[in-house]
Design a protein that fits this description.
single chain, about 280 residues, alpha/beta, Rossmann fold, Dihydrodipicolinate Reductase, domain 2, 2 domains, 13 strands
Length: about 280
């Protein structure tokens, strides 16, 4: 099989670094030695382990992408940048005819999807690339559709903890709110309790110290009106390998769709699981 050319954007971010390292060791891919980065990044290159990747800031990427595309054909981008860059990056991909896997949360999601659907490229857009978490979300979506108002009247609390540099509230937690709403729970996204303090994460949450810089712990707790019944749903992830594995599966799925001349389509990780 011809290798798939991958451009990982978001370095020197830790998730992007983890995925870049996995991609570099996988014979199915060619890792392009260039990455979109933020305007505040001063380094010209990202170097770690066996990686040496040029960092392209917003003011340099337009002039450099043409030469990159001459050398590497049929690029697929993986985006793990910053919530504020989501829509601008999508426009960049669309303008340069680069299909993409968007793992970055935040941004105007409706516009993101609309822009892709009105373009000549296709993309995978998901708030979470961990397959097992996505499967859990699918189970909750099924429950919400099949058993509406199952938890009507219940009080809910959502607590989520991520590394300190994660700027926004978890996209997964936000998605879960919608499912619980359909299950009859009166709860809004702004009620999600977000933990980013490393000391609290160690002392109050019990998160292993080696994973304070990279984790995703979520607990959804529901209590009946008379407080006699309690349900808790918890998924705790340490490290970032689970996202790398899911992202790689997403790239393979998108590549197959592109081989079938997919254009203007938006896929989710549910599509990847089914496929």
């Amino acid at each position: 099989m011809e290798k798939i050319n991958i451009m990982i954007n978001g370095l020197p971010g830790k998730v992007a670094e983890n995925i870049a390292y996995h991609i570099s060791k996988d014979d199915r891919f060619t890792l392009i030695p260039a990455s979109l980065t933020g305007p505040d990044i001063k380094d010209k290159f990202f170097k770690s382990k066996n990686l040496a990747i040029e960092l392209l800031t917003p003011d340099t990427r337009d002039e450099k992408i043409a030469s990159i595309q001459k050398q590497y054909k049929n690029i697929i981008a993986i985006d793990y940048t910053h919530p504020t860059a989501v829509n601008k990056n999508a426009k960049f991909y669309i303008k340069n005819n680069i299909p993409f896997v968007m793992g970055t949360t935040g941004g105007d999601r409706k516009k993101l999807i609309s822009d892709v659907m009105n373009s000549s490229i296709s993309a995978i857009i998901a708030p979470n690339m961990a397959k097992q978490i996505v499967g859990f979300q699918a189970m909750m979506e099924y429950a919400a559709k099949t058993f509406p108002d199952l938890f009507k009247g219940y009080n809910m609390e959502i607590n989520e903890s991520h590394q300190a540099h994660k700027a926004d509230t978890s996209g997964t937690a936000k998605a879960m709110v919608g499912y619980f709403n359909n299950l009859g729970v009166d709860f809004s996204v702004d009620q999600i309790k977000k933990e980013r303090n490393p000391e609290n994460q160690k002392s109050k949450w019990g998160i292993p110290e080696e994973h304070i810089g990279g984790h995703a712990w979520h607990t959804y707790t529901l209590v009946s009106p008379d407080k006699t019944t309690k349900f808790s749903f918890t998924h705790n992830i340490n490290g970032r390998d689970i996202y790398a594995n899911g992202t790689i599966d997403a790239v393979i799925y998108l590549h197959k769709k592109l081989q079938g001349l997919s254009k203007g389509e938006v896929f989710t990780m549910i599509d990847v699981l089914k496929g």
